[in-house]
Amino acid sequence: MKFYIGTTTLVFAALLCMAIADKRYLLYDCNPGEGFNLRRDVYMRIANMVKNLREQKECKGDDWVLVLPPWGRIGYHWKERDMEQSKIPWSKFFDIPSLAKHVPVIEYDDYVEEIGDAKVDEIWYLQRYEEGWSSGNWEDKMHERPCIDQPVYESEGNSDKIRGWFWGYEETYANKFKCVSVQGSSKIFFGPLCGANTTAQSIMLDRGENILHDMFGGKDYWDCRRSMRFSKELVEEANEFRKKHFGSNDEADKTVMPEDWTEHKCTEGDALGGPYIAAHLRRKDFLYARKDQVPDLEKVAKVLKEKMQEYKVNKVFIASDGTKEEMAQLKTLLPEMVMYKPTKEKKKAFKMGGVAIIDQIICSHARYFTGTKESTFSFRIQEEREIMCFSKDMTFNRICSDQEPKDCEQPTKWKIVWNSDSEIWQ
After folding, report:
1. In this entry, which stretches build a coiled coil (predicted)?
2. What number of other Cβ atoms are within 10 A of residue 381's Cβ?
3. Residue 353 needs a FRET pair 20 to 30 A away by CA distance; which of 141, 186, 235, 236 works?
């Protein structure tokens, strides 16, 4: 029996094969010690790298896709060591279709299914320059170098497979590994990734926190940040808490945003916020690492009572990593305080990252917010409020410690960029 295939079918098949061949995947990971909110910032650096790779002339024809690294193994911040706190997909915390409006993304499990194997072609382990920054003038540069530290990857016996930590997926392996000293922003990767140094279909950049933003605070930064909408499950939980404890909702608070973030734009001061104020109080390691910047609980209670009077509200929401004893003491000093305390079932369902996000959503919708200096948790809340167009005076605040002057330095007021990279600072 003979089969005849028409010309149109052959052309379509050829184009399909070319499309598959041209698809390339960028994976990344961070130092295990990096916290949840810093990792969100690293995502933005890598996502904008992929966006720019897709626009580079030397990368023409390469359909770059960002593979989202499963969440877990966040040492200090996520104390639970069981498998329930690893292999967590991004969809647990974020709205994937929203992310994809900025850059093509895919969950790790879907990546494995798509390529048909749990592997990465190449790992580039990003490290510092051993000689340090000694030239006197900053320059963006990268070179393949001998490994300075011993990476957590090794060859498997006599095979060519390289094993290591791949987000808890023991079956995953790599074909090739090298250490790369890097200093600078993601733009220095364009040439090497676009054929100058590799034609691999999949490349993993480990220690992605070593890559800097091309334009911190520019339009691409804010577009990527706006695309990071939270999962509907977490938003619904936070909204229900706001409604129950504060009588807060988006319509009354003037924080309604369109479903599609690309259609959203507002002006500073458009948002009113719910009838409560909110504070993020970072404690634990900050009590000794930044002890001169952390106010005592008596000072916190005093300032928050003053702010409740100023904004004519009678409730304050507290997000904190403080101990039970510290929060009990604060409750005595500040009876009006409310905290989000999920049931065991909800805590298990939302994971530790989800509980943190719910805290951030509630804080971001408050009439007034005050945070902790140099805390990425507070910074993420300030970004959310900037996106919703709260007044900067109601957003970029912190409580001074007793060791600081009364007019201590307040957080930098970042201005959202809607249309261009002009006027980034204010």
Report:
1. none
2. 26
3. 186
Sequence spans of domains, the chain: 7-219, 231-394
Domain 7-219, what fold?
Rossmann fold (3.40.50)
Query: pTM here?
Result: 0.90
Q: Which of 147, 398, 391 is nearest to 416 (CA)?
A: 391
Closest CA to 397 of 418, 413, 380, 376: 413
- C-alpha 394/C-alpha 414 separation (Å) is 13
- Judged against a pLDDT cut of 50, whether residue 321 lies above it is answered with yes
In degrees and rounded to multiples of 5, residue 289 shows phi and psi of -75, -35
Give yes or no for residue 269 having a pLDDT over 60: yes
The whole-chain average pLDDT of the chain stands at 89
Question: What single-letter DSSP state applies at residue 295?
Answer: P
**Partners of 163 in the beta sheet?**
154
- Looking at the annotation, which residues are catalytic? 34
Whether 7-219 shares its CATH topology with 231-394 is answered yes
Q: Which helix (H) or strand (E) holds 384?
A: helix 376-387
Paired tokens of 225: 């940040």
* Distant-in-sequence, close-in-space partners of 406: CB < 8 Å, separation ≥ 6: 400
Question: Quick one: tokens of 118?
Answer: 């749990």
d(CA 426, CA 414): 6
Of the chain, the percentage scoring pLDDT greater than 90 comes to: 73
